[in-house]
Amino acid sequence: AGNKILVGIIRDITERVRAEDALRRAHEELEQRVRERTAELVRANAELRESEERFRATFEQAAVGVAHLSLDGRFLRVNQRLSEILGGTQSELLERSFRDFTYVEDLEASASALHDLARGRTSSVSFDERCVRVDGSRVWVHLTTTRVHDARGEPAYLIAVIEDISARK
Questions:
Q1: How sure is the predictor about 6, in pLDDT bands with cuts at 50, 70 and 90?
Q2: Which of 9, 72, 114, 123 gives the lowest tally of CB atoms within 10 Å of its CB?
Q3: Rounded CA gap, 117 and 86, in Å?
Q4: How far apart are CA 159 and CA 31, in angstroms?
Q5: What's the maximum distance between 2 C-alpha atoms anywhere in the chain?
Q6: What span, in angstroms and rounded, lies between the C-alpha atoms of 42 and 20?
């Protein structure tokens, strides 16, 4: 008869609000962790780049020849000083092995020493030998070679440090 009726429904949404708040906090925490981890990765990448640059500078600018050799004696990486000692370009050396530059009379002893090193019979070798340069001339070198292991502890490659001792000989 003209009376107005107001109908209301009250629903308790306390749990939903708590869940939304918890979800928002978890999202904020996750975003903070992502920001922190991203910052850590940026720092780690910067440190890695700096380390690589130091290695590259040390390797390339060393006053002695430096080479990474496969376990069978092939050159994997050589520095400029080794190229100068052996008289070839870095590219030329990378196409060859230490045997190609070892004087024939020194080859057996040199190959045996490096074989023992590669097989783990010794951890490093050091000796004088004659090398044949790309142009056929000879150069005396003092060679020190060590074995490098991979993450599993297996022999991975050899590092050789080669000093021209011709003047001393």
A1: confident
A2: 9
A3: 23
A4: 45
A5: 126
A6: 33
Q: Which two three-digit tokens encode residue 64?
A: 């002695």
Q: Kindly report, residue by residue over 35-82, the tens digit of the pLDDT.
A: 999 999 999 999 999 999 999 999 999 999 999 999 989 999 999 999
Q: Are 87 and 135 in contact (CB under 8 A)?
A: yes
Size of the chain, expressed as the number of residues it contains: 169
Q: Over the chain, what is the mean pLDDT?
A: 93
pLDDT on residue 1? 67
d(CA 79, CA 89): 10
Instruction: With beta carbons less than 8 A apart as the criterion, state whether 71 and 157 touch.
Output: yes
Count Cα neighbours of 129 within 13 Å in the Cβ-side half-sphere.
27
